[in-house]
Amino acid sequence: MIPYGKQNITEEDVNAVVKALTSDFLTQGPEIASFEKAFAEYIGCKYAVAVSNGTAALHLCALALGVNKDSRVITSPITFAASANCVRYCDGEVYFADIDPETYLLDIKKVRALLENHPKGYFQGIIPVDFAGNAVNLEAFRKLANEFNCWIIEDACHAPGGYFIDSKGTKQFCGNSNFADLAIFSFHPVKHIACGEGGMVTTNDEALYNKLIKLRTHGITKDSNLMHQNDGGWYYEMQELGYNYRITDFQAALGTSQLKRADAGIERRREIAQTYFDTFKTNQHIKGQSGVIEGHAYHLYIIEVNNRKELYDFLRSKDIFCQVHYIPVHTLPYYKSLGWKQGDFVNSENYYQGCLSLPMYPTLTKEEQHFVIDTINSFLNG
Predict the structure, then answer these.
(1) Which of 261, 274, 285, 264 lies closest to 369 in space, CA to CA?
(2) Is the peptide bond before 326 cis (omega within 30 degrees of 0)?
(3) How far from 214 is each of 52, 187, 192, 361, CA to CA, in Å?
(4) pLDDT of the residue at 290
(5) What is the percentage of the chain residues whose pLDDT exceeds 70?
(6) pLDDT tens digit sequence for 174-191
(7) Strands 182-186 and 2-3
(8) Which numeric CATH code is attached to 262-380?
(9) In the chain, what are the domain boundaries?
(10) What is the pLDDT of residue 381?
(11) Closest CA to 191 of 212, 211, 180, 175
(12) With contact defined as beta carbons under 8 Å apart, do 256 and 31 qualify?
């Protein structure tokens, strides 16, 4: 079986987890702080907060930024539902803007039009998504957000190690928070860094960092400098309504071990993407992603075809398990119940009709990739 994504667990990973399991801490121990420090250094930000999963990371970001029933936030329809759901968890209102059909990223022109069609202050935030590993130009989004007094959460779940080039020619790595207020990552098994489950919030804002730390653990603090009173060494205060969104030490140990191979993993992903592109670029039946893009982290490699369902089923019959990313969020029954409907975002809906994510993971062998390619070609050219 060849899946679309797959974790790679090495002997070093196993040893790191066993070491954590046989230590004095299974949770709230030193491995978490070590993982946060290593990840912040890798991304290039000041602060990192490890949490139980990427959805928890998004929820904590929305809470830290004060999303409430009066908040209106813009995001992309082509993303996992959690990018929008985090706003709904806080009773905020989600608005969508369409994608650019070439990059599959949130179209900044569509976002500007949406902002300009409402009074200034109507929207509070924007959640761009580094979809498939393609880095959003957050410098441009930051300029737009500043113009309309909006904050930015960067959903970088697909893109640790990805980057874009800013106007000064500098690499801006996804999640470094030079332009976003907060950024989030996922450590689900099919992602670049696997912890089983897990997530991370990154920021350069100390006040937001401190708020995230408290919200991650029930809104509780044991810092005597922050407490209203102190009855002794056992004492703690719950100062606001938080959640149990902690990650375990053995998950963090696995994440730290995986992080050591992150750059090599991205390099291999880019090699796989180049092979797909070189093979499919002349195939008239396939609209493929453009040539390997600088800074692209290639969590996914996506093609578009006219007969996606038939190709999907054919590949499964050959034990090639591709996937579709994603069903446009605004067409899901829950969001339809809020008033969104088919036809609202043409680019996103057209993309969904033909998109297919091909196998993409560092341990995919050349033989396996060529089998995938040959099988696709035999179907489309047959």
Answers:
(1) 274
(2) yes
(3) 14, 21, 28, 35
(4) 65
(5) 99
(6) 999 999 999 999 999 999
(7) unpaired
(8) 3.90.1150.10
(9) 2-259, 262-380
(10) 86
(11) 175
(12) yes
